[in-house]
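DM between two lab members

TW: hey, do you still have the AraC family transcriptional regulator entry open?
JB: yeah, one sec
JB: this one, 300 aa:
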Amino acid sequence: MKVLQFTIPVAHDKSVIAEQVNLPHHYPYLHRHQEAQITWIQEGEGTLIAGNNMHAFGPGDIFLLGVNLPHLFKSNHEYYQPDSTLRAKAITIFFNPDGLLSSMFELPEMKAFKIFIQQHQQGFKVPEEYSHKISQAMYSVKKAKGCDQLIAFFNLLKNLHMMNAKLGPLSAFGSFPGITENEGIRIGNIYNFIMQNYSESITLEDVAKAAYMTPESFCRYFKKHTGHTFISFLNEMRINEACKKLTEHKFASISTVAYNCGFKSINNFNRVFKYLIGSSPREYLDSYNNNVSNLTRVAS
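TW: and the structure you got?
JB:
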């Protein structure tokens, strides 16, 4: 039986670790580590859970995740099929500002970088207009060796710090509640249960049973550790998946998307979609198509 860990150890034989992942799918369990990480998705699509929020990810996306921020890059369902030829490919840079690099971050010249990392403990997604520059800086870290890698890393931090854009946090908790190993594993199992069954008619009783808790205890526990009610998290998961289906144009109609994402009423789908996204599904799709058309015209 595989023993799951919530706090994942990262090798400490280097002050900066650059990792290339090329696998059938991403590591499928919620986890955390003492290192901050910057991840560039090169291939693959899915949902990132960071703290208590979720975000779709796809090729070209870059995320910074703060120290000890619980997270999970969950590949889409099709990546787990036995006959799948899909791949999850990414470059991740790990670093611990309070570990081997701590003395460097105490230098006066590094103060701005240290404050930047502290301010973004809840993580952020790199704005699209900066993705190319940041990805190239990450690639430079990956291919460099010895002290050259350290120089390339600080150049990467410089490029991140110089981004002139509002960086919204990935997690809504200003300070994520302390979570023990067992609690982290339990929450990860709950997340996975919901992610695997969101398209079905799952109830509070179903998820409470999967967590080996009474419905009343589960409600208190889930709210305390995620800031969500079960229904709010389930709705966010379903709308997140609906947005992906809409923008991938893999649907016969908007009502088909609603039903495939677990909604039994198109009216309820429209209401929840507008509450979470700020527009109707049709308005969201039209806005996305217009943005794609504008980018295509600019590129040509």
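TW: got it. The beta strands are 16-23, 36-43, 46-50, 53-57, 62-65, 71-75, 88-95, 124-125. The mean pLDDT is 89.
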